[in-house]
Design goal:
six-stranded antiparallel β-sheet, 26 strands, alpha+beta
Length: 659
């Protein structure tokens, strides 16, 4: 029986979602995961069996006379282990017939086999049950979009699809363009009388290519030939059983291609990025497969962007990618807390932020952040003081290695213990952090073979770095203030922001000019709330921060929210179906769902999945006044320079502005 036929048979024979999910295990890569898991369990059970057997042998020699109960317990345990081992061997030898799945489902299996299958397969099924869902799409439906931040991986269960490059217009993406002068004049002379008014005639074209089913909605491309980008490779067909988007979901990086359904109907299993991470933890083989794909397709590009590696050729970059070590730290939980004293704070950081590099350790590698964020700190008394944070693409360790080895022209083997380079800072994972570690010896060999001059900035030893605490009392005070800001931004996770709205409360007079300017640009609908976290003399307002790793993009069914070429996260109102996925994903509550009215002020309604009329919702957020010649109107309108859009990474500029 084929995989898809077995799934269809289970769908017809049972309505239980749990049993429906169990049938998915016949597909790759789940079948491979089960096979690897059973092999690993078999090795462990055999080890336990041999140890107990040895223990039984020693019992007769050292504990005479024999205790009947001890012998009976050991004998019973050995028999159970022997039985489990025989079941596993049988399932591994009959893997093609899915005997293990039949035992799990209770078909033609005794109680012991059923219980063992339940015990072994339940962890894998729990991951799918919590982080996966089945989606059915019609022909020409868009599954994933190119340059879209990946939030899920997809397994094609039935049907066909193809991967290709399509025009941005086919995905309803708009290039940032300046608004014409007459539009800006109209906004000022004839302000809109209705709140959240829309020209509903614009929705006609979008409705032709949008299938609205709540969070299961999708966009269609009716004519693939016309939508295809010219001078691009031929579409690559995808068949049932193929997994795609897993590496991008694991790194939360953009998709390279657009995937479109080409058969009359396709059934897909969507596994969210949290599920992909847990699957990688469950099965070492799956993790190795993802790491191999990452080394081949994405790691060379990451290394090529590093200033110190700019002169390396393709083969040298591939060599570094091959010998690099990939590792993960931390958890996916988000807990932003404010501790009252330094002891509580230190204890909380040590518990919640796993150690990646410890200050003072031998600098034997350079690390790159491939996903997530990391705190860079330095010991200060009995606590640690934040100096900076690392985000995707950043690296740490070059200065220590180059300062200790290359500038002195010595090799590692020639250095004594006292002269060995050591890390000058501590690196901790903030949330879930993936890193790439390149050994110093290998990096030294590649740089020596390249014979390219190293720029003074990248070759500066760690001891001369500006991030090291100075001895000057005045300068130390400034560093302390910047560190205090950093601690606040890291604790509250504002480090995601690249255009965060800060309001200097000492300068703000509450005139509301910023709110009115925003409303004027957006048809009398302000796109931010002058309210938010306060720290010292400033406030982080509730306005979209244009995150460098935007979580709001995860799961948008039609791709209505996306990041444009300028790095601004914008929403295409035409294809927004009002499912609230982006608003639910935003951890800062910076996206609002609003009810809209038509040109005459009448509420607009739509039908839900039960056919009931409900108000039409649209997602709204700050768009940095895209199309305005002068940039964000809120910042320009402030007469006291009390409001600025800032990149949190430039903490020293923020400190100077707040001073």
């Amino acid at each position: 029986m084929s995989d898809s036929a077995m799934v269809d048979d289970r769908i017809k024979s049972t309505d239980s979602p749990w049993q429906l999910d169990a049938t998915l295990l016949v597909f790759e890569p789940f079948r491979t995961m089960v096979y690897h898991h059973m092999q690993q369990r078999l090795r462990k059970l055999r080890g336990r069996y041999e140890r107990n057997l040895t223990k039984l042998g020693w019992l007769s020699k050292n504990q005479l006379p024999l205790q009947p109960q001890s012998v009976a317990d050991l004998t019973q345990g050995l028999n159970c282990l022997w039985q489990d081992i025989q079941y596993l061997i049988h399932w591994l030898n009959n893997e093609a017939d899915n005997e293990w799945l039949k035992a799990f489902l209770g078909k033609t299996a005794d109680d012991e086999a059923h219980q063992l299958a339940q015990k072994e397969l339940q962890p894998l099924l729990s991951i799918l049950l919590h982080h996966a869902s089945i989606r059915v799409m019609e022909k020409s439906a868009v599954v994933v979009r190119q340059n879209e931040h990946a939030g899920s991986a997809y397994l094609l269960l039935a049907g066909q699809a193809c991967a290709l490059q399509v025009k941005e217009k086919a995905l309803f993406r708009q290039r940032p363009e300046q608004h014409p002068w007459y539009r800006r004049l109209k906004q000022n002379l004839f302000p809109c009388q209705w709140v959240e008014r829309r020209d509903t005639r614009r929705y006609d074209a979008a409705q032709q290519v949008t299938v609205s089913q709540g969070r299961d909605s999708y966009l269609r491309i009716p004519d693939l030939a016309e939508a295809r980008e010219p001078d691009t490779p031929e579409p690559k067909p995808l068949e049932a059983g193929e997994l795609f988007g897993a590496v991008a979901a694991l790194q939360h990086s953009p998709h390279y291609r657009t995937i479109v359904v080409t058969s009359e109907q396709a059934t897909l299993l969507e596994v969210r990025w949290q599920g992909v991470r847990q699957l990688a933890r469950f099965d070492r083989g799956f993790r190795q497969f993802l790491d191999q794909q990452y080394r081949r397709h994405r790691l060379p590009a990451l290394l090529q962007q590093q200033p110190i590696l700019l002169g390396l050729n393709k083969s040298q970059l591939e060599h570094l990618a091959a010998i690099a070590e990939l590792d993960s730290f931390g958890t996916m939980d988000w807990k932003s807390t404010t501790d009252q004293n330094s002891d509580q704070r230190k204890s909380r950081i040590e518990q919640s932020e796993p150690l990646i590099i410890k200050e003072g350790e031998y600098a034997n590698a350079v690390i790159f952040i491939r996903a997530g964020y990391a705190r860079k700190s330095k010991a200060y008394g009995h606590s640690e003081r934040a100096l900076d944070y690392l985000r995707q693409g950043d690296c740490y360790g070059f200065q220590e290695i180059l300062g200790g080895i290359q500038l002195r022209g010595q090799q590692v083997s020639e250095l004594t213990e006292a002269h060995l380079p050591r890390y000058s800072c501590t690196i901790r994972a903030v949330g879930y952090t993936d890193i790439v570690r390149i050994p110093a010896r290998e990096l030294e060999k590649v740089l020596a073979a390249n014979k390219q001059p190293i720029s003074p900035e990248t070759s500066q030893p760690a001891a001369m770095s500006s991030t090291v605490l100075p001895s000057s009392q005045q300068h130390e005070l400034l560093v302390h203030e910047a560190s205090d800001l950093l601690e606040f931004f890291i604790d509250q996770r504002f480090i995601y922001g690249t255009q965060t709205m800060l309001i200097n409360l000492d300068r703000c007079t509450g005139c509301d000019d910023c709110v009115r300017a925003c409303a004027t640009v957006h048809d009398q609908n302000p796109r931010f709330i002058r309210h938010g976290h306060q720290h010292g003399g400033f406030m982080v307002a509730n306005a979209c921060m244009q995150c460098s790793d935007p979580l709001c993009l995860d799961g948008c069914p039609t791709g209505a929210i996306y990041m444009n070429n300028a790095g601004t996260v914008v929403i295409n109102d035409d294809i927004c179906v009002g499912c609230s996925t982006c608003a639910d994903n935003c951890p800062f509550d910076n996206i609002q769902m609003v009810k809209i009215v038509d040109e005459h002020g009448k509420p607009v309604h739509t039908s839900d999945q039960q056919g009931k009329l409900v108000p039409q919702l649209k997602a709204t957020k700050c768009d940095m006044c895209t199309g305005q010649l002068s940039g964000p109107a809120c910042e320009k309108a402030c007469p006291h320079d009390a409001l600025r859009r800032v990149d949190i990474h430039q903490v020293e500029k923020i400190r100077d502005w707040l001073a």
